[in-house]
Amino acid sequence: MHRFFVAPAVFAQPVITLTGDQAHQVRRVLRMRPGERAILLDGRGRACEASLMAADAEGARFQVLRRWEAEGEPTTRITLYQAVLKGERFEWVLQKGTEVGVAAFVPLICERSIVDDPAALAAKRGRWERIIQEAAEQSGRGCLPILHPPRSFAQAISGTLAAPGSQAEDRHSGDHEVRLIFWEGEREARLRDVLSACNLAQSRHIQVFVGPEGGFSTAEIALARSHGIRPASLGPRILRAETAGVVAAALILYAANDI
Ligand code: SAH
Predict the structure, then answer these.
(1) pLDDT by residue (tens digit) across 133-154?
(2) Atom of ligand 1 at shortest distance to CA of 112?
(3) Which end of the chain offers a freer environment for a tag, N or C, measured as fewer CB atoms within 10 Å?
(4) Taking the model in full, what pTM does it have?
(5) C-alpha torsion 253→166→230→213, nearest 10
(6) Residues with CB under 6 A from ligand 1
């Protein structure tokens, strides 16, 4: 059955109307007929099965049949602080990270970032949100990963963010019990050892920092350390920045029994 995320206020209605791209997809791409069913999700962990009543120029109207708590969410909430990357590479991270189970993304502007114009990044937000939404629909996520606004490395290290999955919007980032920065210069702390040293069963929130094409500077690594963020290695091979975030997320979820 096809899956669509809708806004929570829309989800709460007995008849749910899809508009815009989603209505186009129902009518023109999937060519759904009245009586056919879809799964609608509120992006916050609720799902319903709904039957198409009518699809016309005004939108696609669905009658809700039954509602339940959505599945498809890892219990470990990973926030991926990923340095913004050139071309389509950052989009690839958003798409694959969503498939793997990342809970939230923070685009990071680092010392060696090639892409660092805030206005250019802001202009990409709509496109990035669509990529996350489509990947979440396709992969069967129960919640829509959060896309935070871009932040500088220093802001991200010391700043506050709502913990994904938490009720409060202004919880301090200290709620993340595990904060890791992936650094190819790290020789001692292998991810396996770092993860077995922290109690993953109790650390529901994990922050993961991944650098840009040129890597983190030594000053950035030192700053991270001074904030209690542990450097970790992904092994002796150097991964491209867009590979590292996705691999790290998959390995952490695996170690946490979420994969
Ligand atoms: N500057 C490096 C490559 C950076 S790789 C060079 O050119 O040699 C881009 C990012 O991926 C890094 O900042 C790091 O966060 C992550 N990364 C890649 N390979 C890694 C590894 N083996 N261990 C830890 N992190 C790695």
Answers:
(1) 999 999 999 999 999 999 999 9
(2) 1
(3) N
(4) 0.90
(5) 70
(6) 182-184, 210-211, 214-216, 233-235, 237-239, 241, 244
